[in-house]
Amino acid sequence: MLNTEEKIKAVVAALEDIKATDITVIDTSKLSSLFDRMVIASANSTRQTKALADNVVVKLKALGEEIHGREGEESGEWILVDLNEVLVHIMQPAVRAHYNLEELWSKAQAARPKLAPEQK
Questions:
Q1: Nearest 10 degrees: CA dihedral of 66, 12, 37, 103?
Q2: Which of 73, 72, 79 is nearest to 41 (CA)?
Q3: Interhelix angle for 4-17 vs 46-62, to 10°?
Q4: For the residues 13-33, what does the mean pLDDT come to?
Q5: Phi and psi of 59, rounded to 5°?
Q6: Tens of pLDDT along 51-91?
Q7: Contact 61, 109 (CB under 8 A)
Q8: Pairing state of beta strands 78-82 and 21-27?
Q9: Of 106, 57, 58, 64, nearest in space to 82 by CA
C-alpha cells in the first residue's frame, strides 16, 4: 500500500499521462479529518475528463490501491475519484472556475483558528 505522498505522485503521473492541465495539490490534513490531500486537474472535454479518471483508477489499482468511489461520470464535467486520504477532482475549466475549490480551501485555511503554542 502506498503512503500519501507516493499516492499523490502516482495520481499526478496518471493525470500527466493524459495531458491534464493546471494540476494542483492541496494539503487538507489540518482542515478535514476525512482526507489529507486534494488533487485538482483540468480537462478540455468530457472525453478527456473521463479518460483522466479512468487512467487514475487503472494506475492506482495496478499499484494495489483501492478505489473508494467515482462520481460525476454521467455528465463528465466534473469527476471525483475517491482514494480514501486523497480526493481527485477532474474538472472542465468552466466548472473549475465556477466552484473555485482552491480559493474555497485556502479561505478555510485562513479562517482556521491559530493554535496556541504548547505549554511546557
A1: -140
A2: 79
A3: 140
A4: 89
A5: -65, -40
A6: 999 999 999 999 999 999 999 988 889 999 999 999 999 99
A7: no
A8: unpaired
A9: 57
Give me 70's grid cell.
Answer: 467515482
Name residue 27's beta-bridge partners.
37
For residues 22 and 93, give the distance between their C-alpha atoms in angstroms, rounded to a whole number.
10
CA quadruple 37, 5, 33, 75: dihedral sign: positive
- Residue for cell digits 504548547? 118
Q: What is the DSSP string of 25-76?
A: EEE-TTT-SS-SEEEEEE-SSHHHHHHHHHHHHHHHHHTTPPP-EEE-TTT-
- CATH fold, domain 4-98, is Beta Polymerase; domain 2 (3.30.460)
For residues 23 and 9, give the distance between their C-alpha atoms in angstroms, rounded to a whole number.
12
